[in-house]
Amino acid sequence: MDERFHALAEQLLLIERELRVLGMWSATPPTEEALASCEPFCVDTLAFEEWLQWIFLPRMKVILENDEALPAASGILVMAELIYRDRQPSARGLLESLGAFDQLICGGE
């Protein structure tokens, strides 16, 4: 098991918490068509927070639960900063959690 798994699991929980605090967590999933997008971050069918909730978090949880290989790189923070550039003060906690995730994936502690 990769030594980063525990810290990554904690970051995933923090990302979910921040989405909930910001009121960006939805009880209603997107359509199957929206989830099937081939575009990066499903930019053509989902809001970024929907992508985080319905695609990113579940995929990462499966990777951790099944002790699969972690991605070699992550650039989620860059995308989030672009998406939330007009809401950076209110989204600070989310951005920090995503940044910490990126650092862990890249091998930093």
TrEMBL record:
Could you tell me which Pfam families the record lists for this protein? DUF446 (PF04287)
The record's Gene3D superfamilies line, in alphabetical order, gives:
YqcC-like
Residue ranges occupied by any YqcC-like domain in the UniProt entry: 8-104
Report the domain of life of the source organism: Bacteria
Q: What is this protein called?
A: YqcC family protein
Q: Tell me which species this is from.
A: Stutzerimonas nitrititolerans
